[in-house]
Amino acid sequence: MSKNIVEMHQITKAFPGVLALDSVDFNCMQGEVHALVGENGAGKSTLMKILAGAYRPDSGRIILRGNDIAFHSPREAQRHGISIIYQEFNLIPDLSVAENIFLGREPQKRMGFIDNTSLSEKAQSLLEDLGVAIDLGMRVSELGVAQQQMIEIAKALSLNADIIMMDEPSAVVSGKELESLFRIIRTLKANKKAIIYISHRIDEIFQIADRATVLKDGKLVGTVQTSDVDKPKVVSMMVGRSLSETFPQRKKLKQKQEVLALKNVSREGFLKDISFNVHKGEILGIAGLVGAGRSELARAIFGADPIDMGEIILKEKIIKKSSPKNSIVSGIGFVTENRAHDGLIHSLSLRKNLTLAILERVKKWFYIRDRYEKEISKQSVDQFKIITPSIEQEVRYLSGGNQQKVILAKWININLSLLILDEPTRGIDVGTKSEVYTLMRRLADQGTAIIMISSELPEIIGMSDRILVMHDGEIMGVVSPDKATEEGILMMATGQKRTINKAEG
Asked: Residue 172: which of 344, 43, 340 has the closest Cα?
């Protein structure tokens, strides 16, 4: 009898204009962490959605515990012990922790009323098994992202799942939260659960996975034991070529021409007396832990959030009426942390999304100039190497990396003087990351000022001309990337150290 708890043979799946999976084989054993890796658009999520019952394959077989099976819905897959935790959590914000864990499966009393005592006891037992302490009565909207992720895992266990798929679980956590996630995964593994782990972070795969299956362009490249290969080998399998881990070379600024300055900017509960500047052609990296106020700072600069006091100065002019619309007119672009909710309109075509920020330019009177809009869109697709069957394709059907390229291309189309990037490479593969880094450096060399927020310290050190570190809404200091270390930045980010450097360059 096979040791595999699940086997997928010759799985093929096509969407309009795209062959997402081409005769792919995959298997996973009980008590194993099996990583599924590949560039954006490789077919990873499609394969897992087929196993989760969200999609039906065009051809191929699924063998579960030695028996052929075909799922017609996610609920049917759940009944067979298969659960998937998506990167975008499937939780109800206004319901409590316990209610979310057992949503739709609440224990009931004789008359059909919910048995709240039993509900709380079962939820508490699941969280204790995971070693997680969360108030069961709290609404999910009051919890942090890491705690919400633990609720999703508890929900999967409440379904008696013995195959748990995690889609980019580390994309929303870092530091101690990531260590906690790994601890829980190891506990699940010790309890004979099969964990399928989708991630773009190659380092993590070697920390947590026993085996790794690599997909490329919808085809199986191979499955390897992580103990038998190294990082360059896996990267080469993913991208089809060796990929240098060096970042684009910095160019020393010939003269410092200030584009943006903040003076004593504060917002109660989020930002405390923030002062710094950024120059033409400079990439200013902002580091810090989750909750440090980095995203709130970006939103304040863009005019999406108000400030209580202080001044934001763009090209030597104080911004008095701050709003996203005015920021766009002034040449400020903002790639948000959450592209799914804030960066794109998923029901619109690639063409429409690419011109959202320049509607005044593409319209005449009350009409959109279709020919001009198509011309701009095609240029953007070529420039950014966006993989799509057509500019009329709805962006919801593009891979995560290609969606990120669409957002970047959208802002390049405005008369850009300042570009704010909040986690620009989150959830994208190593090949696309390299392309994004090259683009950022090219923009900087052309004179664009860039503010880059990132939780990946190698990225911060490798891409930044200066590094600003935040903790609890404050600036702890500014350091040179030539002198920066990951340990030193973390010391500052946790509030244990403050540099004497001024925030101004």
From this structure: 340
